[in-house]
Specification:
alpha+beta; Nucleotidyltransferase, domain 5; 5-stranded mixed sheet; 4-stranded antiparallel sheet
Length: 390
């Protein structure tokens, strides 16, 4: 049955009307919620139908898998209501003020249903997306949090893009490679054939140092307070602050990557495949800092994928092995180094890269970003290896 047919069936047995004045006993929606607008009632019934169908689907897949763990739980009562037409009026006109915007919702005051105005905050990206006729708008959802409420607007758009295999056959394909790091959160290089068209360095703007300072403070507080109680989370305000900083940095870097992709329609966005990085060794503060950096890389990857796909740009992940160890010009194995007190010192974390064969020297992260192009096309060190027989 379609969702609309299920909605009609559910209303027939739960809502009292002239045609069916006696709903199921204990399921009389009109008696439990008198004068409730029909759009809210239908939103609640549709949400319940969606949760039930989702639970049955997950439970069926779990039974077919034969697993003994991971049994899906029953759906909870938490709900984010969908605001259909007739329950919301959104006013985004400025009315002479820079940030004066309001949403009008039909709410229950405890006695009656009435319209109430609430101030809202939005950004220029939301405003531009809402005014873009290419995006189809759907009814928003009201998401209630502990300290604030949010309106989530769902928009859809038909996007056409070539598959990666088909794009590789184009000799004039433009590839945008992104090397994710700590100080430079992203080093972006754009390449067509063997020519570098553009390079972009996105700095962390002091994020790494700020995170390290906060994590060190958390570790110090935990040492002073001793072993925490079971199922108790300490330093929640600091952790929330760190997560907000990481989310803000991820969106900022992803926007920079998407802006570069927008200048080259039909390009392919290339990332390193960094899914199995695990922090190990060092002090607890060092491991925590590494873990946060790895999580930030994953957030940047995900946000950039979403923003690029909205522009019709597909994303590929390639083998990262040796991207920072091999020369992007000749393919020979080189070394990373830095200058300390005017002397060249070979170190693993060196900011520069040098090739002993062609004597090429450049910024190490930029060299790694260029090697992602070679890895994507299977050149130099990243040529596909034949399987051993016997």
């Amino acid at each position: 049955m379609s969702p609309n047919e299920l909605l009609a069936w559910a209303e027939f047995f739960t809502v009292a009307t002239k045609e069916h004045p006696s709903p199921w006993k204990g399921w009389n929606f009109s008696e439990r919620f008198p004068q409730m607008p029909f759009v809210y009632r239908r939103a609640a019934i549709k949400d319940a139908i969606g949760k039930a169908r989702s639970y049955l689907s997950h439970h069926s897949n779990w039974e077919k898998s034969g697993k003994t763990r991971g049994k899906p739980g029953l759906p909870g009562a938490a709900n984010h209501p969908t605001l259909y037409e007739g329950t919301i009026e959104l006013d985004l006109s400025r009315n002479g003020k820079e940030h004066a915007r309001f949403v009008r919702l039909k709410v229950y005051t405890g006695a009656t249903w009435q319209w109430c105005n609430y101030p809202i905050k939005n950004n220029r990206y939301f405003q531009g997306r809402l005014d873009d006729l290419a995006w189809e708008k759907h009814s928003p959802k009201l998401v209630l949090g502990k300290t604030a409420a949010e309106l989530h607007f769902v928009q859809t758009r038909e996007i056409s893009a070539k598959k990666i295999v088909e794009s590789k056959l184009d000799p004039d394909l433009v590839t945008v490679a992104v090397d994710l790091n700590v100080k430079f959160l992203a080093v972006i290089t754009v390449k067509q054939r063997d020519r570098v068209l553009e390079s972009c360095f996105v700095s962390d703007q002091g994020l790494d140092q700020a995170c390290y300072k906060h994590l060190k403070r958390i570790a110090s507080k935990q040492w002073q307070s001793g072993k925490p109680a079971k199922d108790e989370h300490s330093n929640q305000q600091l952790w929330r602050h760190i997560r907000r900083m990481n989310d803000n940095a991820a969106h900022r870097v992803a926007r920079s990557i998407a802006n570069v992709c927008a200048r080259y329609p039909g390009c392919v966005l290339v990332f390193e495949r960094l899914r199995k990085i695990r922090p190990k060794g060092g002090s607890k503060s060092r491991r925590m800092n590494r873990k946060q950096a790895n999580q930030l890389r994953g957030k940047i990857n995900q946000r950039a994928r979403e923003k690029a796909y909205a522009l019709g740009v597909v994303t590929a992940e390639t083998n990262p092995h040796g991207t920072s160890q091999y020369c992007s010009r000749c393919g020979a194995k080189g070394e990373r180094f830095s200058y300390q007190d005017g002397k060249r010192t070979t170190v693993k974390w060196g900011k520069l890269f040098g090739c002993p064969v062609c004597h090429y020297q450049t910024q190490a992260d930029w060299n790694a970003s260029l090697n992602l192009h070679h890895s994507f096309f299977g050149k130099y060190h990243w040529q596909p290896r034949l399987k051993r027989s016997g």
